[in-house]
Design goal:
Length: about 675
């Protein structure tokens, strides 16, 4: 390698006092954001970041990513933590290393474009609370969506990193839409906007080593700002890609501490340090210091989150990414959604429908939120379309996309789909071509009004403005107006270790079970999944096997298993989720989740029920009891997998009963309201 420092590695000190490289690769650590977002559904708690914070501050990272993406959502929704407080708390421990956040441009840290007044206030507050680098991206690579936030970032004297979402329609870089010229053009646009650095944001781990080499070389020749590569390990290519990126002259790379690395996360830092040691691109990091951090993460932190790790497969890579060019997280979302709807057998159909939907929706990159938009619509098409009608259930977000509310798509949206989506659309049936936020009315005024007496400051008001339903619920928890449910509470290391011990015993017990117990002819075998572990359970007519009774105890709450929040407790052995079966369960658990509370009072009796086609959360009812409705009118909006679904009235009539309220969680087939 021409960059070699000509240092005799055997003679040199491996510590941080070795000679400095000519052009060290700068490293951003993602452990505290994308790392746990990728591996543990963003459930990392602030208290579990503090034990390593000061040590990490000493490593010499260019920056640490601590916020943005899904953290804001998950923290207030599932962890009962104030997202703003995390920045302030961590800042007390990180005294030298700048903080970076992922900003979804005009989508901020949510899933739709917010009005300019919300966007400005949000960036202002993020900067004020301690954010230094704003890694900004737009899911459509439509930089008109940067126009509001960038001047605020700059006015606060902060670093604006402009992203190009890396996506493809072919197995390798190229093709009609996303060839090298496309990315050069985007990079030049970012440079013109004043980008302090430019990031290739490869959220799916799609970029192949030689494509990265070619692209980074071309970018270094075409634009001045430093080039930063963000890629996920998912497909297995990332460490090779990193090395080729270094050779091509990349300025910054993203890595994680090894316990938070690999799988759908990022390459680990430690092998990179060793690989570059003594070269002209040596990171200069002290590998012993990194090891010290690893011990804490591995022994004191990870056990609390292990149950969230999806490790049912032997393979740590996902070759589906290579086969379908779709982000791994999106695939696991699809699988989860299909599983919850008892339709896992439709996965192949979903794979077939997905590229078709994506193309019809303008061949958009697949990144939050467009990956969910395309994914959920694909699932809806597969489950609800009939041979003579496609796009039978169009999500609100697809309607917004067709209207132009997300921005300009890479290729035009299929006119027929667009027309169907916009039929009766509230803003108008004619799509817009201007910068999306131009058609959005200011939102802060109403938000402030809505949470008057509850919100204490602008940070509180922004939580509500960005997440009205769950944000309001969080503010009630925060100010003691409502008791947070037990599932949002932190688990201790002791609990986590005790639980792992129990699972180990259960597994061991199963082995004895199989050989020792004689089953009758009537015995049936079930596969039962407990926290990602699959048990084969034999069920006999005469009494329960110890294993089954163990599982039943878990289900009934007598033995506490950590269930990932929002996942219904039902497993394959349980009876269909009917209210009577659920009721004693809720009663047995102390302080049961408040969302299960409103008992459907009206019997379905003499009316037509509107049932939940999927598990989700009620956003709003569009009608009240006593309102008359026509067939097809939206009666209730249900949020599932973060997409809003407008559920239509199945017939003409009057609303006789409304069984839930805004913010309630519902199971598939729950009767949401009755029309008679
Ligand atoms: Co990422």
């Amino acid at each position: 390698m021409s960059d070699h420092n000509q240092v005799d590695i055997t003679e040199m000190n491996y510590g941080s006092d070795r000679p400095k490289a000519k052009n060290p690769v700068k490293i951003m650590d993602l452990t505290l954001r994308d790392g746990h977002q990728s591996l543990f559904a963003t459930r990392g708690r602030t208290e579990d970041m503090i034990p390593v914070a000061e040590l990490m501050d000493d490593v010499g990272f260019w920056a640490v990513e601590t916020w943005g993406g899904a953290t804001f959502d998950t923290m207030h929704r599932f962890l009962n933590e104030d997202p703003w407080e995390r920045i302030r708390t961590l800042k007390r421990y990180f005294k030298k290393t700048p903080f970076s956040m992922l900003l979804r441009a005009q989508n901020l840290v949510g899933y739709r474009n917010y009005a300019d007044d919300v966007a400005k206030a949000f960036v202002e507050r993020a900067a004020e609370n301690g954010m230094d680098i704003f890694r900004t991206f737009d899911a459509l690579n439509d930089y008109r969506n940067f126009e509001t936030v960038v001047p605020v970032i700059k006015a606060n004297g902060k670093h604006f990193q402009g992203c190009m979402c890396y996506t493809m329609t072919e197995p390798r870089m190229g093709g009609d839409v996303y060839g090298i010229e496309y990315f050069i053009k985007k990079a030049k646009a970012l440079e013109d906007m004043g980008a302090d650095s430019i990031c290739i944001k490869d959220m799916a781990g799609l970029i192949a080593p030689y494509d990265a080499y070619q692209l980074i070389k071309a970018l270094k020749e075409s634009v001045k700002p430093p080039i930063h590569l963000h890629t996920h390990f998912t497909s297995g290519m990332a460490p090779m890609t990193h090395l080729k990126a270094v050779e091509a002259g990349v300025d910054m790379l993203d890595t994680c501490m090894s316990p938070y690395a690999y799988r759908t996360s990022h390459p680990a830092i430690e092998p990179m340090v060793m690989a570059l040691l003594g070269t002209g691109r040596d990171t200069g990091f002290d590998i012993k210091k990194l090891a010290e951090i690893n011990v804490i993460l591995e022994n004191e932190i990870i056990p609390k989150y292990r149950h969230l790790l999806n490790d049912t497969k032997m393979s740590v890579i996902d070759i589906n990414v290579l086969l379908h060019q779709t982000p791994g997280g999106m695939l696991s979302n699809l699988v989860n959604q299909l599983r919850e709807m008892d339709a896992l057998d439709k996965l192949d159909e979903v794979f077939k429908e997905l590229p078709r939907v994506r193309k019809e929706l303008g061949q958009i990159p697949l990144v939050t939120p467009t990956s969910q938009i395309v994914g959920i619509q694909t699932v809806n098409n597969v489950l609800f379309d009939t041979p003579d009608e496609r796009y039978k259930m169009i999500t609100a977000q697809v309607k917004d996309l067709c209207y132009g509310l997300y921005g300009k798509t890479a290729i035009p949206i299929d006119p027929e789909v667009q027309k169907k989506a916009l039929k009766g659309y509230a803003r108008g049936e004619e799509p817009i071509t201007c910068r999306p936020a131009e058609v959005l009315e200011p939102e802060m005024g109403k938000a402030k009004e809505d949470v008057k007496g509850l919100a204490v400051d602008l940070d509180d008001e922004l939580i509500y403005a960005i997440y009205p339903v769950t944000g309001k619920r969080f503010l009630k928890w925060k100010y003691g107006k409502e008791t947070p449910p037990p599932e949002v509470q932190a688990r201790t290391l002791e609990d986590a270790l005790a639980e792992q011990e129990m699972i180990k015993k259960a597994k061991a017990g199963l082995l004895i079970e199989k050989s020792d117990v004689k089953m009758s002819e009537n015995a049936r075998t079930f596969n039962v999944v407990v926290d990602g572990d699959q048990f084969e359970v034999g069920v006999d007519e005469v009494g329960d096997s110890p294993m089954l009774s163990y599982i039943k105890q878990i289900q009934s709450g007598q033995i506490q298993m950590a269930a990932p929040a929002a996942t219904p407790a039902a497993t394959p052995v349980a009876a269909p989720v009917a209210t009577p079966a659920a009721a004693p369960k809720a009663a047995a658990a102390p302080a049961s989740a408040p969302k299960a509370a409103p008992a459907p009072s009206a019997p379905v009796g003499d009316g037509t029920p509107v049932t939940a086609p999927m598990p989700g959360m009620i956003v709003s009812y569009e009608k009240k009891v006593g309102d008359s409705v026509s067939k097809g009118d939206t009666v209730v909006v249900l949020e599932a997998m973060k997409m809003e679904n407008a559920l239509p009235a199945p017939c003409d009539g009057t609303v006789q009963a409304i069984n839930f309220g805004s913010g309630d969680s519902v199971a598939k087939n729950d009767v949401l309201c009755v029309i008679g």
